[in-house]
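Entry under discussion copied across for reference:
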Amino acid sequence: MSRLSCRVLRRSLVRPSRVRSLPHASDSSSMPSVDVSGRERPLSDRGSATVEAVLLAPTLMVLLLFVIHLGRWSSAEARLRTAADHAARAASLVHPSRMSSVARNAALDNLVAAGLTCERFAVSAAILHQSDPRVVEVALECDVARAGLDALAVTPRRLSASSSEVVDRWRTDS
């Protein structure tokens, strides 16, 4: 150690003004509160982290549920669009008199396979153009079940999707 650092060390050990007496255990009001960095903080700040956590936890939970809610709706919309595509393709392969029933069955099969449950479900299939080539359009409406989202008190949301396909003239017996 250098001479300078030894002198500073001796002075700090010798000076009685820097020495503090420890308070008695019964006198907790005069005990200093020390944070992680070693600095003293006022006694009024004690327990503030607990209060902040108690106030912040419900807010974060609602935010998390809202993100889950948005993810479920976007996933349901994509699944419904896929079901409409499959239903339109299936309807384009059959006779026009059977298009509605085939489209409904194809859409339901696809939604069940995708795991989407609807509280109310409607399918409509119609030929758009009587000219050459004919086009079939399938429209789906679904009130998506809200299971698991009761904490957010969301109302059932109606999603709709439509898809169109050119009628395959060689496969249908029109």
